[in-house]
Design a protein that fits this description.
With 285 residues, this protein is an all-alpha fold. The protein contains twelve helices and no strands.
Length: 285
């Protein structure tokens, strides 16, 4: 069943990117991240109440709580980087870079979690890496999109996302997955709002467009659903496989980016997408 949850995580994550992009056309990405995190927190704790795992809070060990908090911090940093990159860059370039966290996660899982790095995983890493390079390759006639800062933010998003997966895998052991997700989301919420006040962007909350606010909230709901599926899968399956399957959200994102934003893939980028999908599916063998 964990494979089903992993695919569910991919579906909702793909929808999240599109909804978020719709919500940050004018709204500052840091403010948007803070607002959507409120929605995710509410969503997460509702699920805790539904499954009745709230009474386990007092029984959590220091070790489990520590890694959940560290995972939440890494997630917060990844989100801030991701939505900053998404606001300034082409969604069909930002998302593939973010998905390189798959490769780093498999390597870190082998080192820190003892998950075996097989020949198949090695081939998968090469395919995903090559596919990502093809997808972020610019067309000759394409102009740079608001400088190169978006690229650095996208890379930062990938690095922190991979660290999140490893810390989350350790922290989710011995705790009901919905409760673990809810606890770490509180950490993300605190981080996001600290960033809003540190950057002195709280006044922008009053200026948010109603339509963009709706999309931001919907992206929060999609994120909450993705997280619940993701950590349920991570609790029962291997991090080195759960994470790559989750990254198939890139297919959903590309499809909706074409429908909503008219962002089309050239032959090079399409080839890259095929390689990423092939590398991911290879892990399920």
């Amino acid at each position: 069943m964990w494979v089903v949850y992993a695919f569910g995580s991919a579906l909702f994550a793909g929808v999240t990117a599109i909804l978020a992009k719709c919500g940050i056309r004018k709204t500052d990405s840091t403010v948007a991240t803070a607002v959507r995190t409120v929605v995710v927190v509410i969503f997460s704790w509702i699920m805790v109440l539904i499954v009745g795992s709230g009474n386990q809070v007092g029984n959590l060990s220091f070790h489990t709580l520590l890694f959940l908090v560290l995972s939440g911090i890494a997630t917060g940093l990844s989100w801030l980087c991701y939505f900053k990159a998404l606001q300034n860059g082409d969604i069909n370039k930002v998302v593939p870079i973010d998905k390189t966290s798959t490769v780093l996660t498999m390597l870190l899982a082998a080192v820190f979690l003892g998950e075996r790095l097989t020949v198949i995983k090695g081939i998968s890493i090469l395919l995903i890496g090559a596919g990502t390079l093809l997808m972020v390759q610019k067309k000759k006639q394409e102009k740079a999109v608001r400088g190169k800062a978006w690229f650095l933010y996208a890379v930062g998003s990938a690095v922190f996302a991979s660290i999140t997966a490893i810390l989350g895998k350790v922290g989710i052991t011995g705790v009901e997955s919905n409760l673990g997700t809810a606890i770490r989301t509180i950490v993300v919420l605190i981080m996001a709002w600290i960033m809003v006040f540190v950057t002195k962007k709280q006044d922008e909350l009053k200026q948010m467009d109603g339509k963009e606010l709706l999309f931001i909230c919907l992206s929060g709901v999609a994120t909450g659903a993705s997280w619940l599926c993701y950590y349920r899968a991570l609790q029962e399956g291997e991090a080195g496989i759960v994470v790559p399957v989750d990254k198939l959200s890139i297919v959903v994102t590309v499809i909706f980016a074409w429908i909503v934003f008219k962002e089309k893939l050239n032959k090079r980028s399409f080839t890259g997408l095929i390689l990423i999908v092939a590398g991911t599916m290879l892990l399920l063998i």
